[in-house]
Amino acid sequence: MPFKIRKPLIVTASLLSLLLVGPYALAKVDSKEGAEEKTPIEYHFGFAGDYLASHFAQHNSDWGAAYGFLDRALASGNVYEELHKRAMILAVGAGRIDDAIAHTEKLMAFDPENRLALLVLSANAIAEDRADDAVAYIEKMPEGDIANFVKPLMLGWAYAQKGELASEHFTESSFHTYHHALIAYYLGKKDRALELTEMLLEMPDLSMEQYVRGGALLAALGKREKALEIFEMAAQEAGNERRVVQALEILKTAAPYENTDAIVHEVKTAKQGAAQAIYDMALVLYQEQSPGSARLFANLALHLNPDMARIHILLAEALIESERYMDAREHLLQIKPSHYQFLEAQRQAANLTNIPPA
Predict the structure, then answer these.
(1) What is the pLDDT of residues 69-78, one digit of tens each?
(2) Which of 91, 169, 201, 242 has CB atoms 3.0–4.6 Å from 152's, for a disulfide?
(3) Is the pTM of this model over 0.85?
């Protein structure tokens, strides 16, 4: 496939999967995307019928319809903790974040320490520039492996929204070190950003993606020669991938190189940084053959940064795997002309229109 995701960032993906508590989150099914894609529901089956119809729709990879049936079942007055949990998961999977938040708030009355609910609420708080609320939600996550992985990333970007570098929350893993460095750079703490970037690049078993990200930060921090070495190596490994070639062209000019957006990330605000962190979680899940769970994180990231091309590409790949071709096409058409994969996205979107329905 033309957008095939590169091999993984180094992190334990199984821990991320556990964050999506319940069988519904880990089911190997996919759904429609986007709040605008609300499948019409014309029949009324009563609570039991709507509940069963929701399961049937989810089994057939239509999470939008699955959410609609379940939401209507809940409206009948049958309120169960597990149903609100499932409704929240389906709403996020369908890209209907506002609906997910409504169910999340109800779920918190039953389960105030639900990890996914707290992640959704914290991400929405960052999206609405409510950094203090985001910090409060994240800190409620119970301690353990999951919290130890997720909390530093979300706390880091929530504190960054307040203009603070929360170094004490990060571990020395490559995943955390990259975001730690990126936050320091975002906050203008360039000496600390350089120290962390150099620490990242010395770690063993880094993926090519992590080297490229580190190289982009080095370039932005004025370490042009070292960045050139990294991108020349990446060009050989990646077969002269366009983004790497573009970076090399920029680095070889006399102009100061400060625009890392064109290469690997787009972080001008804390919202975009949090979106990058959640996208990275989605990417790990996708690489570990969990596309349904990956799409939950990807849609949450999209809520924070609707213009992030790599989120749309990841969602398109997951949707193509589940034969949701028109939904995948809509995501591909969101790629802007300035992005290095625009032409490939347009080509594949055109090809998807010619695939007959199953």
Answers:
(1) 778 877 776 6
(2) 169
(3) no
